[in-house]
């Protein structure tokens, strides 16, 4: 078929370049139509990988498995054990027709999707399923993770003081939380919306004082300073030595928090460039990646691949909301404490 395509294309080129060549309109249309049909037939050829899971994945070494699926084999098996008895994923009774897709294959497809930038068409071919089948199974599994695992693995610590002490030992600066697990997720706003506006509309803004108690979170200069959310002093060129030291310690402590996002995007590379049209699908993919991130930390499943945002892409931080008096007072007290250490 490829040779015919070349001959037809050559014929069309010759005809367009030779003004004396006379061909009836209906014959010229036939040649053009034949070329178009051959192109369509060529595009329809799909080379799917049969028995990829059985014959290829089963032979992966532990390191190769982790490279492609972004979690260790131990973590994978633990997740697989947890999803097998979920009602939405129960397999039907064996009957005539095409074999059902196993839980193992479902989970492998989802991990490959979240852990790579590969196109859905390519992933579907790799696992020998149609694109529509991949979409339906992937969305179903993302729904399951959000419904059954979000409240189980993304939770606020019961003992905030213990988390506070973990950070205090590391940086002499009390905050929540130091082991790089996510404790609260609020997802769905467009990326161009200012961080502070997203915060103002998040449930955390209302629950923060109760959740943190006498402790506090750390934020950058985009957020308002509150009793339970401490931010750096805004540098207008008039900071004291103690205030500069405070900002430096706060910034060095926040590196641990920023590293969490680097680890998340480094492990689940789909989040580096999210190209999806369905916002709800985007949200579910991000939440599932955060859940998997926490599961990996709990299983001591490390992956030394970080994603660093381009500093040139970081927008200028302009505070949108005023600091409250209670937050500023607490920040001053912390500044004095750090000044004498």
Automatic annotation (TrEMBL):
<keyword id="KW-0479">Metal-binding</keyword>
<dbReference type="GO" id="GO:0016787">
    <property type="term" value="F:hydrolase activity"/>
</dbReference>
<dbReference type="GO" id="GO:0005634">
    <property type="term" value="C:nucleus"/>
</dbReference>
<keyword id="KW-0540">Nuclease</keyword>
<dbReference type="InterPro" id="IPR027806">
    <property type="entry name" value="HARBI1_dom"/>
</dbReference>
<dbReference type="GO" id="GO:0046872">
    <property type="term" value="F:metal ion binding"/>
</dbReference>
<feature type="domain" description="DDE Tnp4">
    <location>
        <begin position="175"/>
        <end position="294"/>
    </location>
</feature>
<keyword id="KW-0539">Nucleus</keyword>
<keyword id="KW-0378">Hydrolase</keyword>
<dbReference type="Pfam" id="PF13359">
    <property type="entry name" value="DDE_Tnp_4"/>
</dbReference>
<dbReference type="GO" id="GO:0004518">
    <property type="term" value="F:nuclease activity"/>
</dbReference>
<comment type="similarity">
    <text>Belongs to the HARBI1 family.</text>
</comment>
<protein>
    <recommendedName>
        <fullName>DDE Tnp4 domain-containing protein</fullName>
    </recommendedName>
</protein>
<dbReference type="InterPro" id="IPR045249">
    <property type="entry name" value="HARBI1-like"/>
</dbReference>
């Amino acid at each position: 078929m490829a040779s015919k395509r070349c001959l037809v294309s050559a014929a069309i080129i010759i005809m367009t370049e030779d003004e004396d060549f006379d061909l009836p309109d209906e014959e010229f249309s036939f040649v053009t139509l034949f070329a178009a049909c051959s192109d369509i037939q060529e595009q329809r050829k799909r080379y799917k990988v049969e028995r990829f899971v059985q014959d290829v994945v089963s032979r992966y070494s532990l390191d190769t498995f982790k490279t492609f699926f972004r979690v260790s084999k131990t973590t994978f098996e633990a997740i697989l054990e947890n999803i097998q008895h979920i009602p939405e994923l129960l397999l039907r009774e064996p009957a005539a027709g095409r074999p059902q897709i196993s839980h193992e294959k479902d989970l492998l497809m989802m991990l490959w999707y979240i852990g790579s930038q590969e196109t859905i068409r390519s992933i579907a071919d790799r696992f020998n399923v149609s694109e529509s089948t991949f979409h339906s199974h992937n969305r179903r599994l993302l729904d399951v993770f959000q419904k059954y695992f979000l409240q189980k693995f993304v939770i606020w610590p019961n003992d905030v003081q213990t988390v506070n002490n973990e950070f205090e030992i590391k940086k002499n600066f009390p905050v929540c939380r130091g082991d790089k697990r996510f404790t609260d997720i609020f997802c769905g706003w467009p990326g161009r919306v200012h961080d502070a506006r997203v915060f103002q509309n998040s449930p955390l803004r209302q629950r923060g004082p109760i959740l943190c108690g006498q402790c506090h979170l750390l934020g950058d200069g985009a957020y308002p300073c509150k009793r339970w959310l401490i931010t750096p002093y805004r540098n207008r060129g008039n900071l004291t030595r103690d205030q500069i030291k405070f900002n430096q310690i706060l910034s060095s402590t926040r590196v641990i928090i920023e590293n969490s996002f680097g680890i998340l995007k480094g492990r689940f590379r789909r989040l580096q460039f999210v190209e999806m049209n369905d916002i709800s699908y985007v949200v579910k993919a991000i939440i599932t990646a955060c859940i998997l991130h926490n599961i990996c930390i709990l299983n001591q499943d490390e992956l030394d691949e970080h994603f660093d945002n381009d500093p040139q892409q970081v927008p200028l931080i302009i505070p949108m909301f005023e600091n409250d008096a209670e937050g500023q007072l607490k920040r001053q007290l912390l500044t004095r404490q750090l000044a004498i250490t």
